């Protein structure tokens, strides 16, 4: 199957499978897994933090960050479209007793600084204590401008807030701007990064922060059932995600642009090319097209997409130009028939 639903579907590389089979391992709950320790040290250095923690998912890394920055009755500011608000089961509220304060995301994915400022609660018994600002980069495939991030960092600092980055796809943001990942992450007190999306590791994310934050996160991770034992098997692949897969993301971005241009020539699709910045293409579908039926027909022809009024198509290591050509050809033929 050719799969455009997400970059989470990427298969681990042969090099990853080989590294996994040969990984030196120990009990990571005791801190004894040499491969996990190498991964965490490498990531901390690469992204400019004291410490890093390997987690089983991005959702867990974000939850650990929120629970380590905020206590019960505290609040974090985030976007209405933020993954750690909208797509993580309300974990911060359910498991952390932390109140989310979602704010409107602008078309470019940013949150207006004036909206952030206005949402910071004064010290008053009526209010939750505003502790944290959480941004996301990339967000919906869009890159937050570096100047905006610097302004948000200053605003947070001036109000005594910590600032977290949901950087599930921060490597895409860095590659798209031709800068180091550290140039983005250096603006934040903590960062989560997914290794199992475009970076192709089978499992795992990282949380980065200072030693105190990571020490707290280790406690929460254990409580949440996320303490893994011979996790070096996974960390071996995760190391290669960071050393061998980051530069390759440029191909995914070029392929997304190629796909967007091709879809733009089909009358039923409306694409804003200015939003095609990394590995995602959003195609607004003309009213009257049944995308559920379209997805089913495509599936019968060996291509997977997620049906929606605005389709999200994601490029990654396991879809190439020929696969994109096939998708476009099949779409054209199906839409002609309907
Ligand atoms: C995928 C994703 C996550 C969570 O990752 P999982 O590993 O699926 O839990 C968090 N934030 C963003 C922006 C994501 O895209």
Automatic annotation (TrEMBL):
Domain Aromatic amino acid beta-eliminating lyase/threonine aldolase residues, every copy: 3-284
Record key words, sorted: Lyase, Pyridoxal phosphate
Any one GO CC term of the record: cytosol
Origin superkingdom: Bacteria
MF-aspect GO terms: L-allo-threonine aldolase activity
One BP term from GO: glycine biosynthetic process
Cofactor(s), by name: pyridoxal 5'-phosphate
Keyword 4Fe-4S (UniProt): no
Sequence positions bearing N6-(pyridoxal phosphate)lysine: 197
Coiled-coil ranges from the UniProt annotation: none
EC number assigned by the record: 4.1.2.48
CDD domains: TA_like (cd06502)
Entry-linked InterPro entries: ArAA_b-elim_lyase/Thr_aldolase (IPR001597), Low_specificity_L-TA-like (IPR023603), PyrdxlP-dep_Trfase (IPR015424), PyrdxlP-dep_Trfase_major (IPR015421), PyrdxlP-dep_Trfase_small (IPR015422)
Enzyme kind, highest EC tier: lyase
Pfam families to which the protein is assigned, alphabetical: Beta_elim_lyase
Quaternary structure and partners: Homotetramer.
Similarity field: Belongs to the threonine aldolase family.
The protein's name: Low-specificity L-threonine aldolase
